Amino acid sequence: MEQEIKNFKIKTAYNRINLHQQGGRLELRSHDNALQSVIDLNCPQKLGLKNLEHLMSVLLFIPEPKSVLMLGTAAGSLLHFLPHYYPRTDITAVDIDVELVEKMLRMEVLPAAGDGLTYVYGDAARFILSCDQSYDLILADVFTGAQTPGWLLDKKYTDALYRRLGEHGALAYNLLIESEHDFKLFYRELRLVFNRQTLCMPVKDYENLIAFGIRHPLPARYMAWYMQHAMALSEQLEIDFLKILAVIYNTNPVGAGVL
Question: Model confidence over 162-178: pLDDT tens digits?
Fold first, then answer.
């Protein structure tokens, strides 16, 4: 992360990305100026966007993951966060945009592949259907332009992702869906696939919606247990999980699934 970047444009068959550096802050924006990622060059493991902090609150509901599948590279943020805080975890990141990933690797915006981190160049939809490995955590952070691709909301892929989870695994979605109706249809099917072991929440001041599916039913736990767990995880990962836990409880009725 030593190379200084002021302003840089990357254009590929799949993306047009603008990189802007102000001091130690690197912003990645789409061609229409939508903010996609923020990286603190002095502390790259720290998540700079609230939607990704909310996405990682899935860690409140599963054991420490030993294997993670990332669909999309989250513009680099999570690929710094996860190896830093979970150095013994095996991470596989799938992205169709080979040219973008290679350029960001050369610029050191993305961490290099190595022990515990593998890049797979290919279509995430095909990878899901052909993969035979199981994972403790799957992060779906795939976008077509500024929207979640329609295929990711299809029950065929929800079923396939469910089958790729280990016994105590979880699936976490970072979604941008314009239609409330489309989200409700997707979430209803997610609850069917995961036998009601799901959670969802908005992200204040963002258009993103976050949704979780938990593979194995969790033991009944009081809010006080989750609050204590959130405080411990907040200290470990430098994220205010207590605030996010409040959003989870305000959005999801107790007794309707995970809570």
Answer: 999 999 999 999 999 98
Provide CB contacts within 8 A for 188, sequence distance 6+.
none
* 56 close to 237: Cβ distance less than 8 angstroms: yes
Distance of CA 51 to the CA centre of its chain: 9
Q: What is the 3-state secondary structure (H, E, C) of 103-144?
A: HHHHCCCCCCCECCEEEEECCHHHHHHHCCCCEEEEEECCCE
Reference 216, options 174, 257, 158; nearest CA is 257
Instruction: Among 3.40.50.300, 3.40.50.150, 3.40.50.880, 3.40.50.1820, name the CATH number for the domain at 45-251.
Output: 3.40.50.150
Contact 213, 193 (CB under 8 A): yes
Q: Which residues contact 245 (CB under 8 A, 6 or more apart)?
A: 57, 60, 226, 227, 230
Can you tell me the distance from the alpha carbon of 241 to that of 127, in angstroms, rounded to the nearest whole number?
32
96-141 pLDDT, tens digit each: 988 888 888 887 888 899 889 999 999 999 999 999 999 999 999 9
CA atoms within 13 A on the CB side of 113: 10
Judge whether 137 and 164 are in contact, CB under 8 Å: no
Q: Cα–Cα distance between 190 and 155 in angstroms, integer?
A: 8
d(CA 91, CA 76): 13
Q: Which residues of 5-29 are buried (b: 16+ CB within 10 A; e: fewer)?
A: eeeeebeeeebebbbebeeeebbbb
Pairwise CA distance, residues 1 & 24, whole Å: 10
User: Where exactly are the structural domains of the chain?
Assistant: 45-251
